[in-house]
Amino acid sequence: MASPTSHSDLFSPSSGARLIACPGSAKASKGIPEKISLFSSEGTDAHELASVRLLNSLGEKAEINTGDLTWYNKEMEDHIAGYVSYCNEKVAEAKEKTKDVVTMVEQQVSTDRYGEGLFGTCDFAVLADGDLTIVDLKYGMGVKIDATDNVQLKIYALCLIETFGHLYDINNIKLCIYQPRLSNVSEWSISKDDLYKWSDTILKDAIRKIKEGSEEFHPGKHCKFCKAKPICKALRDKNLDVAKKDFQPPFLLNDEEIEEILDQAEDITEWLNTVKDFALSEAIKGHKYERYKLVEGRSNRKWTDEDEVAKVVKDAGFNPYEEKVLSVTSMQSLIGKKKFEELLNSYIFKPKGRLTLAKRDEDKRPEVTTAELDFKDLNEKGDNNNE
To answer: Which domain holds residue 158?
Structure first.
């Protein structure tokens, strides 16, 4: 059996959807270091807290010093409490069918079914006679994750069945996503037979291509978190293909041309920003571009000593401080979700959002009809803040 670390170097389950859709991205990404973002480090803190709180709820001893967590706050504690409660609901459901239920927290899973080890870390799993339930905590807010046909969770299920299936005769698998900051709970079920039909064809074929060093590229939505994104020729060609077209001014375009541009607009903008960020990071490392140079951007004036400034202004008879009520999110973080709802729920309203276009087949929000619109109200009072 493979020696697991956290995720497979060959085929990381968390990147599984991209690697299946674009096997060439594995070779293209090799050697490019992971970029640690504020969001990923926040997610790491949330997972560390979640594992301890969940173990405690299951009667196991585990400790954590929240002072060591950079992003810890009351809001995180509240969200993790919801996750723990959800996981315990899954345990209770399993116990309705089987008394002897096995639970696993932050379980390293692996399988050698397709040769070189395939492995990762499963946030939470419940094993019972005939049933396997997997719960994955997603603490991020950038992208809403769906459990339906989720490649990462299907790989975890495969690994768990390969390891424990002979003990529990697993036939039914439930995959669950718990994404608290987007109020997203998604569940999807698959049979063991269907899981193996998928893994023995689609997954197996993708792993084979990657082992062979495939240079088969298929740009798409899965490119979002690919490390090779800034240097990918296939993605560049796809994005520039639209930009090269000789489009007329917007009012002369037909609906088909407008929708073609809208299909690509978000991806092109995101790709351009990724290339700009990559070029900047390379310049900071010392790379010299022929037509671009590294310069300092504009900056704002700052106080050298805020305490001394406050003293001078007070002595002059002025108030140097601004009093302002905290935002909804900051206030909830300050006093905790439960107390927040008890004290302040009646003082909250959510303005209508500004109008935007969304794809019919991807977005579940109801359509706004022109007959319902009050343009002045929506565009002057609308608020993009998702608090």
So the answer is: 36-212
